[in-house]
Structures are given as structure tokens and as C-alpha cells.
């Protein structure tokens, strides 16, 4: 639960850090927390957001450690596929024809709606765009992971990931000013699934060569097959 409270030891296991590192970060105000009775207390939802916004700067080993910590905390099997099963059969657009940030979000949500996964399309689009207004999710060169800021259990029928590949790319707020071509929209019924999916995707998108493999997809089937292959490789690498 987002409001769940965690202590220093729990946060250390959750984010794959030594307890002393967690205490140091907390003391410097670099991780959201408050002090109660001489001990730091952390709210899980705030820790999740802190991890999410820093994932693009983490290496593969750190992401793998976070994935193991998140899985253990929530009772997930970190050796099971999670991204590929969330892709609905018609949930990939190659090519994605949208030419604006809002157009991308609307087209991706439309894919999920056509698959019967969306109850409140306009509300979902609005929430995703509000998240982008806070900070662009185009954190990986050429790739964006748009998603609502919080889980929206009442707006969607089930957790899903839908994907689109733009032929030439478009501005999506990337910190390096580059164009974004690959979009993976993540919508989850709960926060625990959301962070697990983000951590897995972070590992899958760590290597520029793997991103290029995704960009080379010429059809929805090729993109799906490459996503599935990269996820299996991430699982095998531990």
C-alpha cells in the first residue's frame, strides 16, 4: 500500500542499499522521510516515487537488486515474466502515427480501450498527461515510459502495457532534447505491480544495443517478439 510505513532496514532491503547508505541519504534529505523518536520513518509510496525518478541513472546490477527487493517485499516471483503477459494481443502500434505528445498518449490509450482494458478513457489520458507535465518519462534515449502518477484501479479493467513505435520520432520532453521513437505506456491496478514493471523495463532498456533491437521492429509482431526476448534475457541474467 502507498501509505505503508517502512523503517531503515526495510527500505535498505527494498531498494538494494546498505542500511548505512539509507541513513546517510535520509540524513541529507536525499530520500523522502521523517524522523520519529530518533529513527527515520519512510512512507512506501514516497520511496517508490523516489526510486522511479532515479531509475534512469541506475546500472543493471542496481536495477536487478531493486527488482529482487520489490519482488520479495510484495511476494512476486522475480524469475517470472511480467511485462510480456501485460501486452494485450492488439496492444502494439507499428508504426505509431501520432505527431504530438498528447496524440501519442491518446493513441496508446485507444489501443488499450480497444482491448477492453479501459473504463474511463478521458480520465486516464488526463492523468497520464498530468504526470508528463510534472516530469517527462522520456528518461532513456529514444524511449519514453508514460504512465499515470498513481495507480488508477477504477479507470482500468486490468494492469496492462501497450507499445508504439514512431517511424521518425517526436519531441516528448527528453532531458537531452532528442526525439523519442519508442513508447511503452504502463497502467497498473496497484503500485506494487507498477514499480515491478518499471524495474524490469529498466533492466531491459539498459543497453543501447537492446534499444536498437526494439527500434528495428517493422511490425507489431516483431516488436512483441523482441520485447519478450529481452525480458527472458533480463530474467536469465538475474
CATH class of the largest domain: Alpha Beta
Give helix % range.
40-55%
Instruction: Kindly report the spatial arrangement of strands forming the biggest sheet.
Output: 4-6-7-5
Report mean pLDDT, rounded to a whole number. Answer: 92
Q: Rg from C-alpha positions? A: 18 Å
Tally of structural domains? 2
CATH topology descriptor of the largest domain: Mannitol-specific EII, Chain A
Structural class: alpha/beta
E-strand count: 7
* Largest beta-sheet details: 4 strands, mixed
User: How far do the termini sit from each other?
Assistant: 26 Å
What is the count of helical runs?
Answer: 9
Q: Hey, roughly how much beta strand do the residues contain?
A: 5-15%
Could you explain the architecture of this structure?
It is a single chain. This protein has 238 residues and is an alpha/beta fold. The chain has two domains: 5-57, Multidrug-efflux Transporter Regulator, Chain: A, Domain 2 (Orthogonal Bundle), CATH 1.10.1660; 84-237, Mannitol-specific EII, Chain A. It contains nine helices and seven strands; from the N terminus they run βααββααβααβββααα. The protein has helices at 8-14, 19-27, 44-54, 60-74, 101-114, 121-134, 191-204, 208-215, 220-237; strands at residues 5-6, 34-36, 39-43, 92-93, 143-144, 160-171, 179-187. α4 (60-74) runs antiparallel to α7 and α7 (191-204) crosses α9. It starts with a strand and ends with a helix. 40% of the residues are buried. The model has no long low-confidence stretch (mean pLDDT 92).
Amino acid at each position: 500500500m502507498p501509505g505503508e510505513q517502512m523503517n531503515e532496514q526495510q527500505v535498505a532491503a527494498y531498494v538494494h542499499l546498505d542500511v548505512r547508505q539509507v541513513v546517510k541519504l535520509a540524513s541529507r534529505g536525499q530520500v523522502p522521510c521523517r524522523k520519529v523518536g530518533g529513527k527515520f520513518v519512510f512512507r512506501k509510496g514516497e520511496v517508490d516515487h523516489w526510486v522511479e525518478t532515479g531509475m534512469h541513472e541506475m546500472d543493471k546490477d542496481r536495477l536487478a537488486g531493486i527488482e529482487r527487493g520489490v519482488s520479495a517485499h510484495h511476494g512476486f516471483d522475480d524469475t517470472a515474466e511480467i511485462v510480456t503477459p501485460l501486452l494485450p494481443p492488439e496492444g502494439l502500434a507499428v508504426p505509431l502515427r501520432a505527431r504530438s505528445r498528447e496524440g501519442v498518449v491518446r493513441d496508446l490509450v485507444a489501443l488499450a480501450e480497444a482491448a477492453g482494458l479501459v473504463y474511463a478513457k478521458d480520465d486516464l489520458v488526463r492523468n497520464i498527461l498530468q504526470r508528463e507535465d510534472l516530469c517527462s518519462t522520456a528518461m532513456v534515449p529514444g524511449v519514453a515510459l508514460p504512465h499515470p502518477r498513481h495507480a488508477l484501479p477504477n479507470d482500468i479493467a486490468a494492469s496492462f502495457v501497450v507499445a508504439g513505435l514512431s517511424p521518425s520520432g517526436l519531441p516528448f520532453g527528453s532531458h537531452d532534447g532528442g526525439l523519442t521513437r519508442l513508447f511503452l505506456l504502463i497502467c497498473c491496478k496497484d503500485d506494487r505491480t507498477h514499480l515491478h514493471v518499471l524495474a524490469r523495463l529498466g533492466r531491459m532498456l539498459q543497453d543501447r544495443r537492446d534499444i536498437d533491437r526494439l527500434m528495428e521492429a517493422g511490425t507489431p509482431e516483431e516488436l512483441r517478439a523482441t520485447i519478450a526476448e529481452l525480458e527472458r534475457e533480463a530474467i536469465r541474467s538475474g
